[in-house]
Amino acid sequence: MSTKTVSFEDVIYEVQTKRNFTSNSSVQKQQLLKGVSGIFRHGQLSVIMGPSGAGKSSLLNALSGYRTEGVSGTILLNRKTSCYIQQEDYHHTLITVNEMMMMACRLKLKNSVSTDYKKQIDEILAGLNLSHRKSSTAKTLSGGEKKRLSIALELVTNPQIMFLDEPTSGLDEVTASACIRLLRQLAHEDRTIICTIHQPSAATFDLFDNIYLLAQGQCVYSGSPRVLIPFLLNQNYTCPKYNNPADYIIELCDTEPEVIPHFSSHFLNGKIQCLPTNSSSNDASICEYQMKHSINTLQMEIHRPKESTIMQKMKQLSKFFKSEYALSSLQQFLVLFNMMMTKIMRNRVVLWIQLFHHLGCGFFIGLIFLNSANDGMRMFDHLKFCMGCVFFVVYTQIMVPILSYPSELRVVKKECFNRWYGLTPYYLALTFSRLPLQIFFNLIFSSIVYFLSGLPMEPWRFFLFALIGVVVSIVAEGLGLAIGATFNVTNGSAVGPALMAPFLGLAIYGFDFAADVPIFMYALMKFSFIRGGVVSLVLTVFGFNREKLECSDVYCHFDDPKVLLRYLRIENVSLFTEISVLIGLMIAFRALFYLSLRKRFYK
Ligand SMILES: Nc1ncnc2c1ncn2[C@@H]1O[C@H](COP(=O)(O)OP(=O)(O)OP(=O)(O)O)[C@@H](O)[C@H]1O
């Protein structure tokens, strides 16, 4: 069997469903695909069609490997030469079509191939009628152009097998028809193209070489579109002359559900195909057909529950050492870092907003505590100043990734799945590309509040002050990214503040009765990175032999900074330990972020 052909046998896709949200006992297994088989040959454009909820996307996801959990059966295809194009076209913002194509070439083509990709890009874009949109960003493209861009990006590596989920959804009749014609042309250039379409129009129905009709997770027709009408006729169903055969059979499955098991057993759930004999008639209704056994027993299994775990481990190990990417991890990192920096620098609006936000809040907090840092009578103001600075940094850094990251994740998931790059180089590029601006904006904020509040002009003290701001902001951003990678925007914007509440509570707890705080609460308080930040700032501001503060009254209890530190029970706390704990939490949140990404991408 050709390596470009996709065949599958007895594929079952099961999901767990809950009857209600309160009880675990009602967890049930639901079969979305009920042991379907079939074959999609190379050089052909095949369509999986059927009514809504029939299982079309489930089958495409199972065949392409996009879903593996709950999938069992036998699927034979060469995944390394395949690509998957999702229903929604997720593209990078702020970079042009040409730059996206260039990035795809740099990441997906081996170094040995010429690094002058211009000619290749021009050819692909011209073939897909996108040359005139070369310098546009994806945001400004029409629906059809976005779809063609998705295809163009994958065509860079000339994939032999292409899966497309609902490529015509959201397109008007003419554009949808043009899209199907394009897919047909690509398939006839010796590729296997498989797409799902809810209900092809009469104009596009005949463009497919092969149709695979699903209903209730079962195959009810497989074969040539030309012989669908004669087949139905043979089964005593007459498709009215001017009806679209696709509409007719879908309606039949809907209005007469008993035909589903009947047709399904007729086709052995996809093992048999209905193919035309050499009839020269142009009239579909008198075209002759034959039922052909298309599936022989396949050899490669994707799901073997009985395989020993040692064998599984060995396979995983060999996969680890055999890179499935065109570039080394370092090269992937460099290309991604470059692209991310370009995107950050081009996002002028966000840059200006961030600049004004840091300047504005810096001046606001600085003016509230104007020249108060030396006043021995304003002990609580000193504490509030440190808390205000830390709270500002935490809120700024935590909410942005929660709100913005989920949309970026969709592009990354698509690219990772299509083997553009690995998760680790992406993760490192993301982490390092955000650092320079994070440090820059924190320095602006720290400088303003430090000097307006009148803290001592000691460079090393300012350095520590700014360093703590940067460390806290990296910790908070790590938590924000972990939430953004785990939840969608709606859930994340509820989870973020809810998670912050205990950290905040622990940050302000017990400052006014430090002597009476129970030991176990001290242990718990260590987990609050916000408190860690506040304590570190207080130690930086009042520790390291800070001189006595000014006192404008007869007696100032807190004019000696050591008294304040003793009152807060932090006189023996080392700044080094506090920063180490913050770094520990930073690593923990970043690891959580990485694991969350892994879980989402490889489920
Ligand atoms: N994770 C899941 N848990 C429970 N049910 C699911 C899950 N995924 C899909 N389903 C259900 O399985 C059925 C098949 O879903 P699928 O998305 O494959 O259908 P489809 O034929 O592509 O439909 P449409 O044309 O409307 O996109 C639907 O009824 C859907 O609600």
What is the alpha-carbon Rg in Å?
31 Å
For the biggest β-sheet, the strand order reads 5-6-7-3-8-9
The shape, in one word, is elongated
Q: Termini, distance in Å?
A: 29 Å
Give structural notes:
This protein is an alpha/beta fold and 603 residues long. Among the domains are: 87-159, no CATH class; 329-601, no CATH class. Helix content is 52%, strand content 12%. The chain has helices spanning 56-64, 97-108, 118-127, 143-155, 173-188, 202-205, 228-234, 245-255, 259-266, 309-321, 329-346, 348-368, 379-417, 423-453, 459-486, 489-508, 519-525, 529-542, 561-567, 575-601, and strands at residues 6-18, 27-40, 45-49, 71-76, 82-85, 161-164, 192-197, 210-215, 218-223, 272-276, 289-293. The strands form 3 sheets. The chain has a 6-stranded mixed β-sheet, with helices on both faces. A 3-stranded antiparallel β-sheet has the order 2-1-4, with helices on one face. The protein has a two-stranded antiparallel sheet with strand order 10-11. α5 links the parallel β6 and β7 (192-197). α12 packs parallel to α14. The longest helix is centred in the middle third of the chain and has 39 residues, at 379-417. 39% of the residues are buried. Bound molecules: adenosine-5'-triphosphate. Residues 15, 17, 30, 32, 50, 52-58, 198 line the site of adenosine-5'-triphosphate. Residues 6-241 form the ABC transporter domain. This is ABC transporter domain-containing protein. The chain crosses the membrane at residues 351-373, 385-406, 426-452, 464-487, 493-511, 523-544, 575-597. Keywords: ATP-binding, Membrane, Nucleotide-binding, Transmembrane, Transmembrane helix, Transport.
